[in-house]
Amino acid sequence: MDFRLLGPVSAFSGDVPVPIGPPKRRAVLALLVLAEGAPVGAEHIIEALWDTRPPTHARTIVYGHVSALRGLLHADPTACVATENGGYALQAAPEAVDVWRFRELVRRATDGSPGEEAAALLREALGLWRGRVLGGTGDTRLMTAAADRLVEERLAALEHFAGALHACGRGPEALVPLRTALERHPLRESLVAVTVRALHDADRQADAIDLYHRTQRLLAQELGVDPGAALSEAYLAILRSRPAVDRQPKTQRDVPAPAPSAPQAPPHQPAAPAPLTAPAPSPAPADTPPPPFLLPRAPAGFVGRTEELARLSEAAQSGTPALCVVTGPAGVGKTSLAVHWAYTYAGDFPGGILYADLHATEPDGTGPQPAGVLHDFLQALGIPEERLPADARAAEQLYRSLLTGRHVLVLLDNARDSAQVRPLLPGTPGSTALVTSRNRLEGLAATDCARLLPLERLAPPDGVRVLRTVIGEVRVAAEPVAAAELSALCDGLPLALRLAAARLAARPRLSLRAMADDLVDEHRRLSLLSNEDLGVEATLRLSVQQLPPAGALLFRQLALHVGSELDSGAAAALSGLPPAEARAALDELAAAHLVEEWTGDRYLMHDLTRLYARSAVARADTAGLHRLLVHYLAAAQAAAAAAEPGSQPCCTLPPGVTPPAAIPVFAGRADAMAWYVTERANLTSAVAAAADAGHPELAWRIAVQLWPLVVRQVHDGWEPALERALAAATALDDPDAESRLCSLLGWVLTENGQHTAALEHLCRAPDLAVRAGDPRGQVIALINWAAALEHVGDLSGAGTRREMAARMAHALDHPHTESLSLYHLAAHCLAVGRPDEAITHCRQALALAPEEQSDERRALLLDTCGKALQALGRDSEARRCFSEAAALAGPPLPVDGAAAGQGGVALGGGGAPGGNLRVVAS
To answer: Are 920 and 901 in contact (CB under 8 A)?
Structure first.
């Protein structure tokens, strides 16, 4: 017999699956296997099976599970469960247990040198994994810890596998499993390091560098640490292998390359940038004006941005002439970066440096006109005022003719749009134009081959470095955690960080913790991040003032948004614009860096921008909130229908409510569930927003439409949203709504061990369903109530309610609901030692409208019937049931009737409208 733990816990006799039984029996088998032949005491088994206080007869239950396992093994001479030293030990051939085989293969591979043989052994070892390790054993603390240890072993084996392939010159072959593992373990530095190396082996240096820097930011954000030695060394190996950049015809200065935050820089980097001072002008004839140098004062305390400076250097030499556009949100440090780079590389531009701030300063918000800037530039280039051309075109031609043959840098700061920039571009080889803008200026990329360089917010470690430059190392070192929180609260914006640091510098006795606590208050944050002549709010106001009408309308309405992320459907609902226009308005906000485009149709509004939008909520049209709530309700209805095809809707739109114009269309269950996960924060916030805004009829409806995600993530803290929705339903005195919420909330509380609170809701649900005239809802409520009673040990009360539910379902003449109730009654009979009755109920359920039953439902019924037959010693009949169930289930059968991994929960799939849930006896 073969035992498999590296996936759902299972046993096989040849190719035939052996029915192990309920989750706790599978857990006992897993504990014996993991002990590798050593005896496991009953106390340890009891501790592993029950997180809370075990039942009175726990030892008897454990003995029953051991006895059942012995019964399964009695016909196999190669395996048995022996009693040794007061415990139980599994004796089996090493090759019969996948965990033992896995560990032996890994040991053999890692004892030798990495190479072809090691790679082959590790490939075989990793091939033994079949899914979620220790699946179907429950989620108790000790079983979860055991699963985590096995996952750690697999990750270590995967890293060795990548190392062996690297040694063979076949590193890219490991990329697929490595990237899959990284999605689940993004903070595991050793895994990132081998993935960086594999990407490098595949000649994907850009991807390798990007992965390193994403991990660097994530480590800083989540843990407040820098990458360790292994990851840093993998990164440095890439940098050492990159060819030096030829800067001809400019001076032979090395381009700064990105560097990790480790204390030592790669050997090929320059030791320090050029001094931040104006270059001495080259000697010139007496009648030749000196080269202009119009740069503003160098930014004080500039830190970080090593990678961005390197990218800027690369872009600055990429064209004839080169045109670089640094874009980013207000306060992100575009001007500081551009001016710092200009000072650093001033020696590369012997023809001079021209600078103009195109910031909007005119009363109409238009900013300086190109003609005026051209006149300033011409004067700086030596043209006296009386010779300045009056005609704009003539001035442009003279400007470009003066730049011919000269290496000049033209820095155009705070540009509004492409049209403002084009007349000021050099247009001749040898010169470089550097533009900064809050807008993306994609027009310059299309017509002038501009290199667009988006400037991202500072990672937390760099944000902390900004604080150090202003308030000193001592204060930051004394409160490192508070410093990291301050960086996060400032959204990684250098302007906000410097304003916070200035406030600290002016108040030596103010601790960083107190400052961070002050910034947590969203009502005060914007006012705290300002001083006498500038602030985050002022910079954001300017960005908003420059928006086109549709973008400005949408930004006003964002004050009403319930979350920080949105898509075009939510934007259309908020603004009242048609979907296509709302999508265009979102693009306008993204171009102005007021929202950040993530993937596809998803946009993020960072905290400070969100707070600024909400500070002007009085200017928003409050009807937008109602439209948004209706949008989320209709979208959740569509998602529920796709996630559980054939299920009866929990509710309809409230009377008189018009459906939204843009409702998502889902390709199937996976697509719908992905939408639920993405929108969860918005949906739960929408419940509270609806209740707060006086829309209880929307609050409870949105909450019940969350049920497909609730049943799959039951332990993820749904109680606050469901309690809020229940309060809204109670305020409406709507028994239908109350019944649904009591049933759903009660079930969630049951699954989370809050049995007393669960019963308070579940005992009300059936009567509320009667008041609502919903007999199928009453059946579901009784089933859920029975499940909670079983958890507190009231098997008699649970049985009474299951029998009542079955009788009521039969009277309804609704086959789906009747088969559901019979299934639960059969499971109860099996649990209390009445297998004959369980078989009768299962067969009755299987005969009810079989063509309408899902494969999952029939598999559950056949599995329960097989267990009952097995309990009566009718093994051949039981095997037939198990075989049919396995064929219908496809993947490993749900344990004890539970949908895969749902801890005792399965979906109704067309059941009563009272939540469409069924709770499975465990």
So the answer is: no
Q: Tell me which of 146, 169, 192 is where a domain ends.
A: 169
pTM over 0.70: no
682 close to 690: Cβ distance less than 8 angstroms: no
Fill in the DSSP letter of residue 894: P
What is the domain-level CATH number for residue 320?
Answer: 3.40.50.300
Check whether residue 31 and residue 96 sit in a common domain: yes
The DSSP call for residue 792 is: T
Dmax over CA atoms of the chain, in Å, equals 113
Task: Identify which of 485, 493, 624 has the alpha carbon closest to the alpha carbon of residue 556.
Answer: 624
**Amino acid present at 877:** E
The secondary structure of residue 404, as a DSSP letter, is T
**Short-list 6, 34, 12, 28, CA closest to 138:** 28
DSSP state of 10: E
Residues 6+ apart with CB under 8 A from 264: none
Alpha carbons 463 and 100: distance in angstroms, whole number: 48
Q: Which domain, by its residues, includes 473?
A: 469-537
Are residues 8 and 110 located together in one domain of the fold?
Answer: yes
- Do residue 473 and residue 391 come from a single domain? no
pLDDT digits (tens, 9 = 90+) for 126-157: 888 887 788 888 778 888 888 889 989 999 99
Beta bridge partners of 40: 88
Residues 747-769 have a mean pLDDT of 90
> What tens digit of pLDDT does each residue of 245-300 get?
333 333 333 333 333 333 333 333 333 333 333 444 444 444 556 788 888 877 76
CA dihedral 570, 575, 576, 582 (to 10 degrees): -70
Residue type at 212 in one-letter notation:
Y
CA distance 160 to 116: 12
Beta bridge partners of 845: none
